[in-house]
Amino acid sequence: MRVVLGVGGGIAAYKAALLLRLFTEAGHNVTVVPTESSKQFVGVATWEALSGNSVSSSVFDEVEKVNHVRLGHEADLIVVAPATADLLARAAGGQANDLLTNTLLMARGPVVFAPAMHTEMWAHPATTANVATLRSRGAVVLEPATGRLTGKDTGPGRLPEPEDIFTAALAAVEASRPAAAPGALAGTTVTITAGGTREPLDPVRFLGNRSSGKQGTALAVAALAAGARVRLIAAHMDVPAPDGVELIRVETALELRTAAHQAAADSDVVIMAAAVADFRPAQVVETKIKKRDDEADPVITLVRNPDILQELVHARDESGTGTPALIVGFAAETGDATSDVLEYGRKKLARKGCDLLVLNRVGKSLVFGQDETEVRILSPADSAEDAVESAAGTKAEVSARILARITAELAARRS
């Protein structure tokens, strides 16, 4: 996603650097447009180093690129943080006396303002009127936080935390995007895998994962709403399967593999949203493994489970039938010192060969079991980083967006 981060001239400008990092670490392409006064607080070198893009505040820089028009036209999202009283006034009045206000006038996507100023400025009737004007035009103006301000003052007017601005901005983007139209998948069979597989060690214990099945069931609900016939292959889930689906219960990765291959034969779309164990115990003990003081601790040998997604793609390509028309994978990734989440996602997409890959960053408090998520939807055609589609919000909202993308991909293949 292409993001313009506008920075106003307030002491809270330093927090915008943390917001910038959130966007870039999530894989978004960010261009920072500071006002001249904001450079008194944070210099251009900081913005360029953190964003990886050149930074300007003047309409006369890089004239050949027509920046004052191009930036607003190309941006999927514009976020202004901090939005000072002066900047809100200039935006509401339609002024265009620097690069940022020009960009705001040219905006085609969502615009989010994160105010930061003294309490008296925020409460002033002029600011109240300017905020109302901006909101009436469709801009999102966040409420400032309450807390310590410059000096000893305390009250409303503090810049919201960068994480809160980031979440609100992604929600604004998601709200601007259409979902799959009702009936758009009528006559289409969609198979979805959901939940987490469990690989038995003995009759009591198993190897599992934190998947709750919420994303898979949300996808099933979205597919039903779009008019599809939905088959849900469910491993362990913390939530019930929605009414109206053809439900197939499985436990292990091998059971899910068999069910998925059988279901793919008459499916138009297969969405592999389940968290399938990469490994299983080489042997399953028939009786409970006992803990005995006179014996050594047991050693569990693991073997690799088959790559079901890769197998489905291979089977389709080998058959020559083109069925399923669309195979969608899910990738739950964590970054490390070698690569970030997006880079790992691209490598996985190339390795699996699927048509779309839904990528999310996971952790103990991220994605698994949560009601909200953020994903990137990768396809082999999206070579440029800023061309990668993103979706954020509740898992229901994100599922609607994924189904909208699937509907568009199916239409393109059938035309």
From TrEMBL:
Ligase in keyword set: yes
Domain called DNA/pantothenate metabolism flavoprotein C-terminal: residue spans: 185-408
One term of GO molecular function: phosphopantothenoylcysteine decarboxylase activity
Keywords recorded for this protein, A-Z: Decarboxylase, Flavoprotein, FMN, Ligase, Lyase, Magnesium, Metal-binding, Multifunctional enzyme
Enzyme Commission number(s): 4.1.1.36, 6.3.2.5
Domain Flavoprotein, chain residue ranges per copy: 1-170
Region (Phosphopantothenate--cysteine ligase): 190-415
NCBIfam families xref list: coaBC_dfp
UniProt similarity note: In the N-terminal section; belongs to the HFCD (homo-oligomeric flavin containing Cys decarboxylase) superfamily. In the C-terminal section; belongs to the PPC synthetase family.
UniProt name for this protein: Coenzyme A biosynthesis bifunctional protein CoaBC
Gene field: coaBC
